[in-house]
Amino acid sequence: MKPLIHKEMKKLIAIAVIVLFSLPAIQAQESTFNLGDKVVSAGIGFGTTLYSGTYYSRGVPPISLSYEQAIKDEILEKGVIGIGGWLGYSSYKYDYLGWGYKYSNFIIGALGAFHYPLVDKLDTYVGIGLGYNIASAKEFGVDIGWDYSASSGGIVFAGMVGARYYFTENFAVYAQAGYGISYFSIGVSLKF
């Protein structure tokens, strides 16, 4: 099990603090995420935060679904705070000469983000999340008379820096770096 705060998470927090303290010096653009807005996003991740090393292979790549609503505006002039929830799923396989385990992880959590417009049509944000990871493992391979499987769970911390680019008033693509179910993800967002 990896420690709760990794070097990558510390770097992400440092970048987020720098961005937040430099915001007042930047000329703000028109906001694309406003009080009362609701956004649903779906994406695919790259780079695992769960399993890595020799004999591991990916099954289902990290996928995520999130919902966010803007609840407070006019922070640092044009900033907006949003809260919501997210779901993530990924599966991996540990295979050593035909024997091993299939792992799956389902994460459910809450998130909060600070949005600040830096460029027209671009919703830039930094956020944090807290969730619960439901993990399961099932043995496969050599049949020695028992079928081993297990499941467990634990608290998950997440942090992210990202941006949504709006092609229309309600449709955007996003890119996000951080620590959650993956180190980097891309996807689509719908605002309503």
Task: Outline the secondary-structure elements.
Layout: H1 7-22, E1 38-48, E2 56-58, E3 63-75, E4 79-96, E5 99-119, E6 122-140, E7 149-166, E8 171-179, E9 182-191
Antiparallel strand pairs: 1-3, 1-9, 2-4, 3-4, 4-5, 5-6, 6-7, 7-8, 8-9
Verbal overview:
Helix content is 8%, strand content 64%. The protein contains one helix and nine strands, in the order αβββββββββ. It has one helix at 7-22, and strands at 38-48, 56-58, 63-75, 79-96, 99-119, 122-140, 149-166, 171-179, 182-191. The chain is elongated, with a radius of gyration of 19 Å. The N and C termini lie far apart (39 Å). The model has no long low-confidence stretch (mean pLDDT 86).
Brief characterization of the structure:
This protein has one helix and nine strands; from the N terminus they run H-E-E-E-E-E-E-E-E-E. With 192 residues, the chain is mostly beta strands. The termini are far apart.
Average pLDDT value? 86
Query: How are the strands of the biggest sheet laid out side by side?
Result: 1-3-4-5-6-7-8-9
Distance between the termini: 39 Å
Q: Helical proportion?
A: under 10%
Give start-end ranges of low-pLDDT stretches.
none
Tell me the number of strands.
9
Instruction: Please write the string of helix (H) and strand (E) elements.
Output: HEEEEEEEEE
Instruction: List the total number of helices.
Output: 1
Q: What is the structural class?
A: mainly beta
Round the Cα radius of gyration to an integer and report it: 19 Å
